[in-house]
Amino acid sequence: MDFVIGGLAGASATIFTNPMDVVKTRLQLQGELRARTEHSAKYRGIFHALYVIAKNDGPIALQKGLVPAMLLGFCMNSVRLGMYHVAEVQGWTKTKEGDISIHKAMFWSSVSGVMSGIAANPASVVKTRMQAAAHPSIAVGRQYVYSGMIDGFVKIYRVEGIKGFFAGVNATCARLAIGSAAQLTTFSTAKETLLSYGFCERSPLGLAFSASCMSGIMVALAICPIDVVAVRLYNQGPASKGGLLYSGVFDCLRKIYKKEGLHGLYKGIGPLYLRIAPHTTLSLVIWDMLNILFTNKNR
């Protein structure tokens, strides 16, 4: 049940945050391996991207990749939040005195993040490619035509084999290890700190909301560069599609920094934050509330 609760929390939050994920993906693929002076921006920021996508592909395009995104949210969070909750319940994240141990919390949140990344990577690849697909006038990055999630899985398997489903898995695991450590550690610590100062003592919802808002800021700052790398690796496809742009995580980091500068590693940080902050808030609040309901029901 711990894993089911985590999965439901992640999938539910995805419905509200997917449009920002679409914008983030487009901004991160825009001007791939080109200096800022070598290309014209088709998306000039968050709100312009929302407008351009809705105008050229229709408003529904802002929910591109929603089905694999929800599958991703369920798979990722069922493992990540489920494992972390088990660690919390067993006391593995606390000191002998019963307080939160930062080191232990970071360890278990990182482990749960890596495991969730492996479980959810196939859905991540399909989601990213579906979100990148656009009208030729606003297309960025390599384009793939999938009629839906199942069609995406079938075509990737036929062309790239099982290996295609695990494109960028190293970046995914690194991103989730860092992101989970930042998210879950700061969430647990923030809740404990707020309670110690007497805030939200009688409002579990308010406590979860406040702690998750603080957590979202740390996550966005920590994972943006590796998130850009993950999106690029997901979208590059097989060697037969114009050759591989990147041979791996470090090659991708090096090439982005060399060609696009530090700015390239922080492309899409705006929509990344606007996706992560509400997604973090929604998923952690839903997770916390479901855990409370389940605990009370079984007393």
Helix content: over 70%
Strand content: under 5%
| Coarse morphology | globular
Overall mean confidence score, pLDDT: 88
**Main sheet overview:** none
Low-confidence regions: none
Strand/helix succession: HHHHHHHHH
Rg for CA atoms = 19 Å
The number of helical runs is 9
What would you call the structural class?
A: mainly alpha
CA(first)-CA(last) distance = 15 Å
Number of strands: 0
Description:
With 299 residues, the protein is mainly α. It contains 9 helices and no strands. Helix 1 (2-29) packs across helix 2, helix 4 (102-132) crosses helix 6 and helix 7 (204-236) crosses helix 9. The model has no long low-confidence stretch (mean pLDDT 88).
Quickly describe the structure:
The chain has 299 residues and is mostly helical. It is built from nine helices and no strands. It is 72% helix and 0% strand.
List descriptors.
9 helices; mainly alpha; 299 residues
Task: Describe the SSE topology.
Elements: H1 2-29, H2 46-57, H3 66-89, H4 102-132, H5 149-160, H6 169-196, H7 204-236, H8 249-265, H9 269-297
